From TrEMBL:
The protein, known as: Phytanoyl-CoA dioxygenase
Region (Disordered): 1-24
Ranges annotated as biased composition (Low complexity): 1-14
Pfam families, per database record: PhyH
Species this chain originates from: Penicillium malachiteum
Domain of life: Eukaryota
Entries under SUPFAM superfamilies matching the protein: Clavaminate synthase-like
Length: 343
């Protein structure tokens, strides 16, 4: 796989930004932009990566989608925020069914030029693939589902250290200090290897994938003693939030009347995916399945969706309309690269 070196527009007082993917030259370099935040803090906010009006339009489209199930949900009537009137959304705001990963609004956010450009800068290549991940639809004051308990974790296998994946989400509604959403442990990504050396014999919190590590109370205490602080990230509609997969994080529910909507956007170089993974990814695209945040389709999500303990009759395996992509976005599915390999 060839690597295209993109020219970054960012220059610093010490010269042009370093080449290569983020962290490839250690952390003692200077970019003069959001990449410095990711390097030092483990997360960053790209203000207005999506123009505010477009972000709010995507939020409206999510409302249209929710109302379109015809289960009685009405965006202007908070009394209709109830599982009987909504598609299945868990206590963390995750919607894992209904081919939502391939809905028009989800793909529209993934195709946003500044979002793509941001990840091109991080990996110093245009040859990227994007995850077919979910959306988060967090409504406040939900009493009809379980409470959202904190589950501080990192989305990376402790046995596979180093910078491997940058996770992201585009925030679509005003998201202030009490409006729920992403909370990160600042700077802990740089302590990840040391942490796992100390905690390598501890009993692990169960996980369905090796690429998830849950922090126990003792682990959280260790981070605290090392001076790591938990930061609730605040965002406006259209802001892109990014975090290193090693950064401990979780999400909070809104404590106000403000819902929280976002679309997860995660990109990685196609060179990081195997041919077999690209084949799985192609299948996931053609069958409009979800892949979690891993763009290399490490996992394909095909879980049953329930309504009152029975298979949800409103579950669907296809989005409302067939996926339509620009040429740029089609490359992000990895399919053109797979075809090149076969040629
Ligand atoms: Fe996570």
């Amino acid at each position: 796989m060839t690597t295209t070196t993109t020219t970054t527009t960012t220059t610093t007082s010490t010269g042009p930004a370093p080449s290569g993917r983020l962290f490839s030259q250690g952390t003692n370099v200077h970019y003069g932009d959001f990449r410095d935040d990711i390097m030092h803090n483990g997360y960053a906010v790209i203000k207005g990566a999506v123009p505010r009006d477009r972000a709010l339009k995507y939020a409206d489209q999510i409302y249209d989608w929710l109302e379109g199930f015809n289960l009685g949900f009405k965006r202007d009537d908070p009394s209709t925020i109830h599982k009987d009137h909504l598609p299945d959304i868990n206590e963390k705001g995750m919607c894992l069914g209904y081919a939502v990963s391939h809905e028009s609004f989800t793909w529209a956010v993934r195709q946003e030029p500044e979002v793509i450009k941001t990840f091109e800068k991080v990996y110093d290549t245009e040859d990227l693939i994007v995850s077919f991940d979910s959306v988060n639809i967090g409504f406040p004051s939900r009493k009809d589902i379980e409470p959202n308990t904190p589950w501080p974790h990192q989305d990376q296998d402790p046995e596979k250290p180093g910078f491997r994946c940058l996770q992201g989400l585009v925030n679509l509604l005003p998201n202030g200090p009490k409006d729920g959403g992403l909370i990160v442990c600042k700077g802990a990504h740089l302590l990840s290897e040391e942490f796992h050396e100390v905690f390598k014999d501890e009993e692990r919190i169960w996980s369905w994938t090796k690429e998830w590590y849950g922090f126990t109370k003792a682990g959280q205490e260790w981070l605290k003693k090392r001076g790591c602080e938990w930061i609730k990230v605040e965002a406006e509609p259209g802001d892109l939030l990014l975090w290193d997969s090693r950064t401990p994080h979780y999400n909070l529910s809104s404590e106000t009347s403000q819902p929280r909507f976002c679309v997860y956007t995660c990109f990685m170089p196609v060179a990081d995916a195997t041919e077999e993974q690209l084949r799985v990814k192609k299948m996931a695209f053609e069958e409009t399945k979800m892949t979690t945040h891993w763009p290399n389709a490490m996992h394909v999500v095909d879980l049953p969706v329930f309504r009152n303990g029975e298979a949800d009759p409103y579950q669907r395996s296809k989005p409302r309309e067939p996926v339509q992509l620009s040429e740029r976005a089609f490359k992000l599915t990895g399919i053109p690269y797979l075809e090149q390999m076969a040629a």
